[in-house]
Amino acid sequence: MRFLLDNPTFAMACQQFDQAADLLELPQNLRERTKWPKRLVTVAIPVRMDSGEVYVFSGYRVQHHLSLGPTKGGIRYAPSVDLGEVAALAMWMSWKCALMQLPYGGAKGGVACDPAMLSRRECEALTRRYTQELISFIGARSDIPAPDLGTDEQIMAWMMDTYSTHAGFAVPEIVTGKPVPIGGSLGRREATGRGVAFLVNRAAEICKLCSPLRVIVQGFGNVGSHAALELVRTGSRVIGVSDRTGAIHRAGGIDLSALRQHVARRGGVQGFPEAEPIDDREILLQPCDVLIPAAVERMITGEIAGKIQCRILAEGANGPTTPEADKVLAERPEVFLLPDILCNSGGVVTSYFEWVQDLQSFFWSEREVYDALYRILEQALSTILKRAGREKSSMRMAALMIGIERVAEAKRLRGLFP
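Given the sequence above, the corresponding structure tokens read:
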């Protein structure tokens, strides 16, 4: 299995696991069972393109463990997707679900493609064929997909319809993050970003920072944009934003409404006339109170970690900070870290709420959704702070130790079959 997962992101996830497992003193046999993914699925996805040619895409799904319940995790469409990246994301999802005390194991999936280059018909054909190839491996009691990078509510609707057509009846609980009219949950679309904002505001209270907080957001997709909007709504000022097209900065604050309109027209933040362009790397190094990396993995390197000028580092993305950067941050106690498996967990928590609503055919108000989400986030933050203080460890190690410990304990209690 190891040679199939030769990927720097998976190596990073394993390094984090090994550090936490050493601190937990996990027995070797239990350690190995907890670390390695249960199932790796690779599929070929032939799609007839608009040109008439047939192109075969590579698709993946990794189920990390099923000891606590069905696996749960997003589907991403991106050119860089490979089996190792997906396995790393599935592993992090396992610790995240356990940390938040959800009855799930971790999973992740993806297709190596550039969704921006696909027509709507091509994207639908790709999604439906990918879902069909996974029919034997996904299910409301076995593995439940959700949106991730490059996917959205519409793609989840196509996945649900494909699975339901195969079943012969509507199965809304097969995916989460779908449109509200077909069984989606109110608040799910904004949940990850609003969860980031909630935790940033709680961290600001802990650090005794004065309002308005100056915020820089790397990545202006679903997570970054909704985190920024919620922080502005609660009194903060966004002074920098970047995405795949470029980066912008304005010390006096950026008008997010105008920026969103610009992004909708132009496809990115580049060229926004009401802020100054800045280098993609330099935006991370500007003075601010809150830095939110909400793009992709491994963006905060050791070099950058030594130069960032923020008080709160809130990881909206999965795995944005490398182990080398963690070592640097350990020597910088003035930087309060909100680790990814806590900070961006609002999406999977609200996906859990959606799944429960679908199973019961009983739906909640948006207020009920967010009241429940914020209670869970508050409890998890408090648990991590206590563990970090007791163990004299970083926030990341405390969060990982809690998640890994819960998964390992479930495996110990259930035993080994046969």
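The radius of gyration is 21 Å. Try to locate this feature in the token string yourself.
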